[in-house]
Design brief:
Pfam families: FAD_binding_2. By secondary structure, this protein is an alpha+beta fold. 33% of the residues lie in helices and 22% in strands. It is built from 19 helices and 24 strands. The strands form 5 sheets. Strands 13, 15, 16, 17, 18, 19, 20 and 21 form an 8-stranded mixed sheet that branches. A 6-stranded mixed sheet has the order 8-4-3-12-24-23. Helix 1 packs parallel to helix 19. The two termini are 14 Å apart.
Length: 560
């Protein structure tokens, strides 16, 4: 069984197990559950208090990229592994020598997503919401970025429902004396014996009463040493560490102000220890941050932002009121929109819409912002089809500092300038743009590619039912008032990380496996040091934690 005791002479806490896992997020829990199921003793270390077990996955919307599922087929979606692989490679645009392992992971992951993934999750009690969503629609032609068809399957119960079966298995192991959980244990370095990684050492932090997601202290009250036959690194990404995000931002052109889409504990600091042990970290400049961030009016962690999941109907304007070019419509190309906005020299942009579009098309990412799906509440879910005055979006309309309402374009422009503390929005130009867009809608046909995209989206049942409003004039008073939403850049995911082979073994710069060392989840770039390449197709982050965590747990267990 895993052991923990205190060295009487030095006050060092000592932990021993077959396998030590650093990080109690989703990939760490999956690895721990898998290794325990294989009969091994497991010790899980995490710098946060127990309240934060499950990590970022708990906060997630629960989106899963899956291919050719019954849910898709019931909606008339024709998908295949070949089509998904084509979309993945077009989006990833692998172009570096160090992408070889990442491409192998991509091929294996698409096979998983089109094969056993759904059945495996269902065997664990994970249900899928029947209405598949369409994220990252692309718009660059058949060989360009984007999902050709909808593949974003929402977990019934969102992120917590993904975490639940693996946490339950780990707690079963705790009860059986085979798994031990060590919170407030901050790993700092890896131990190597005769060329093999055999443990980890670090600080024991003072107890913390911080609730899930809140920043916790870093005052050390002791130290620990953990020994094992294999160590799995599942320490996550860098999104809560803005200094590192800025350092790795391509061209050092990060915006002056950014919101955090993840807790402060997502700091990426342990990667340096893996590098010291010989591990190769690549693709640090590839990151997945969102341009549609808004301030949380009820923040949990520092600079807490929420991402808007938009339908396609809002006008998207840069800070100076210029419409983003096609195909940078809401929901089509996150990275393309982000790059365009940052190049303007401003770190924010605007959605301009009206109340009908807001209540029909805007969703908020995160388990806490979707109480109907998270709570598996069918009655509450029905309110999405008949929006009322008590919805998450309405609460942001009432309380969010980024949300403005007005009865006319000129009044809206004035309020946008007041909020931004500038005079960048020209009222006459905004009014002209809105009326020109309304004229395209009123024509019934038109030359506006965004209006064409809206009409095309409504051919898909999910979009017509709950995600895309019928085309109408923004200025129609029956759909008012007009709304502007200020959008900030929101940090979220690392797309690079430790290079791993398909067994989740960490590789050195020469491509050799480091004995005893594994990595999974975001710390491994979700596999191979960057399975997504430059762009993600969405729904692939949780799935990447599942896939790589399982591989790490299996091989680590088999190796000891």
């Amino acid at each position: 069984m895993p052991l923990e005791n205190r060295d009487a002479d030095h006050g060092i806490r000592r932990v021993a197990a077959d396998i030590v896992i650093i990080g109690a997020g989703l990939s760490g829990l999956v690895a721990a559950a898998t290794a325990y199921a294989a009969g091994k003793t497991v010790a899980v270390l995490d710098q946060e208090p127990e309240a934060s077990v499950g990590g970022q996955a708990h906060w997630s919307f629960g989106g899963l990229f899956m291919v050719n599922t019954p849910e898709q087929r019931r909606l008339g979606v024709k998908d295949s592994a070949g089509l998904a692989m084509s979309d993945w490679l077009a989006s990833a645009s692998f172009d570096r020598s160090e992408d070889r392992a990442a491409r192998e992971w991509a091929e294996a992951y698409v096979h998983f997503a089109s094969g056993e993934k759904r059945a495996w999750l269902r065997s664990l009690g994970v249900g899928i919401f029947p209405l598949v969503q369409w994220a990252e629609r692309g718009g660059y032609g058949p060989q360009g970025h984007g999902n050709t068809v909808p593949r974003f399957h929402v977990t019934w119960g969102t992120g917590p429902a993904i975490v639940e079966p693996f946490l339950a298995k780990v707690l079963e192991g705790v009860a059986a004396g085979k798994v031990s959980l060590h919170f407030r244990h901050r790993a700092l370095s890896l131990t190597t014996t005769a060329g093999r990684v055999t443990g980890v050492s670090g600080e024991v932090l003072e107890p913390s009463t911080a609730v899930r997601g809140q920043a916790s202290g870093r005052v050390a009250v002791g130290s620990f040493e953990a020994t094992a036959d294999a160590v799995v690194v599942t320490t996550g990404g860098i999104g809560g560490n803005h200094a590192t995000v800025r350092q790795q931002w391509p061209g050092n052109s990060a915006p002056d102000y950014m919101l955090s889409g993840v807790p402060a504990s997502v700091d990426g600091e342990f990667l340096s220890a893996a590098i010291s042990a010989g591990g190769a970290v690549v693709n640090g400049d590839r990151m997945w941050h969102y341009p549609e961030g808004i301030h949380n009016y009820d923040p949990v962690w520092p600079n807490h932002g929420i991402r808007i999941l938009p339908g396609p109907s809002s006008l998207w304007l840069d800070a100076e009121g210029r419409q983003l070019p096609a195909p940078l419509f809401p929901g089509f190309d996150s990275l393309g929109a982000l790059r365009h906005i940052v190049r303007t020299g401003h770190g924010y942009s605007w959605f301009v819409l009206n109340r009908t579009i807001a209540l029909k098309e805007l969703a908020l990412s995160g388990s806490e912002q979707n109480p109907d799906l998270t709570g598996k509440d069918v009655r509450l879910l029905a309110s999405r089809l008949r929006p009322t005055s008590d919805t998450p979006i309405q609460r942001f309309l009432d309380k969010g500092i980024d949300f403005l309402q007005a009865s006319s374009p000129s009044e809206l422009a004035s309020r946008m300038n007041h909020l931004a503390g500038s005079s960048l929005i020209n009222a006459a130009e905004l009014e002209s743009l809105i009326h020109a867009r309304d004229g395209q809608v009123a024509s019934g046909l038109g030359k506006d590619p965004q209006v064409s995209a809206i009409r095309a989206a409504r051919r898909f049942a999910t979009d017509k039912l709950m995600r895309v409003a019928p085309p109408h004039r923004l200025t129609d008073p029956t759909h008012g008032p007009l709304i502007a939403i200020r959008l900030s850049v929101l940090t979220r995911k690392s797309l690079g990380g430790l290079i791993t082979d398909l067994r989740s073994r960490v590789l050195d710069k020469e491509g050799r496996a480091i004995p005893g060392l594994y990595a999974a989840g975001e710390a491994a770039g979700f596999g191979g040091g960057g399975i997504h390449g430059y762009r993600a197709l969405e729904g692939t982050f949780l799935g990447g934690c599942l896939f790589t965590g399982r591989a790490a747990g299996r091989d680590a267990a088999a190796s000891v």
